[in-house]
C-alpha cells in the first residue's frame, strides 16, 4: 500500500485519544473507532504511522495491532477473555516443579518461588505446588480471587495480559509483567527457565534462537501496551 497521508497527529476524543491522518480519524481493523485511554499511547500509535515511507509496511504496526485486539476482541467479549485466561492459573508453569532430588528443582525454586510468593501475598491467595506433571487443582478461593483481579482490569491491560500469559504459560508471570516497574528480562528468564535448562544440556540451533527472540519481542510489546495505557 502506498502512503496516502501527509500529516499525523493526536487529538482528544470522547473517552480518550485517537490518531488522525490528514484530519481523518483512524479506525481499528474491525471498523471501530480506535480510541485509546492515554495520550502517550496515542502518540506511540501515531509514531508507527509517521515512520512509514512511501510504501506502507503493514508489519511495522505491532502496537496498533495489539490495541486493535483490545478494542475489537477484548472489549467485544470481556467475560470470554477472562474465562480463557483463568486456565493459565490452573496449570501455571511456576507451580509445576521437578522432583526435589533433581538439580532442576533447585533452580526452579530459587527463580520461581519469590515470584509466586509475591503474587500470593499481594492478592491474599495460595497456589498449590506440584512436583511432576500430574495435574493438581488450584483452590477454588484462589481462582475466585484471580477472577476478581482480572475483572478489575481495563481492556488494554487485559489484552496485554492475554499475550503475556500465552507466551509465558503463566498467569502469575503475566500479572507481574503488567505492573508498574516490571523487569522484562527477569520475568522472561523465569518464563524460559526450563528451555534455558535444556539449552545448557543440549545446546540450541539458530532457528530456535530466532524464534525465542521473536517471542521475547512479543512479550515486551505486551508489557509496553500495558505501560502506555496505564493512567498516571
Report the structural category.
Answer: mainly alpha
Number of helical regions = 10
What is the C-alpha radius of gyration, as a whole number of Å?
20 Å
Assess the beta-strand content as a share of residues: 5-15%
Rounded average pLDDT: 95
Which spans have pLDDT < 50 for at least 5 consecutive residues?
A: none
Termini distance? 37 Å
Q: N-to-C SSE series?
A: EEEHHHEHEHHHHHH
Largest β sheet strand count, sense and barrel closure: 3 strands, antiparallel
Q: What overall geometry do the principal axes of the alpha carbons give?
A: globular
| Strand segment tally | 5
Helix share, percent: 55-70%
Strand order of the largest sheet: 1-2-3
| Oligomeric organization of the protein chains | single chain
What this model shows, in words?
The protein has helices spanning 39-50, 62-74, 78-90, 103-123, 140-151, 155-168, 171-177, 184-191, 193-202, 206-228; strands at residues 8-13, 16-21, 24-25, 96-97, 130-131. Helix 6 (155-168) crosses helix 7. It has 232 residues and is mainly alpha-helical. It has a 3-stranded antiparallel beta sheet.
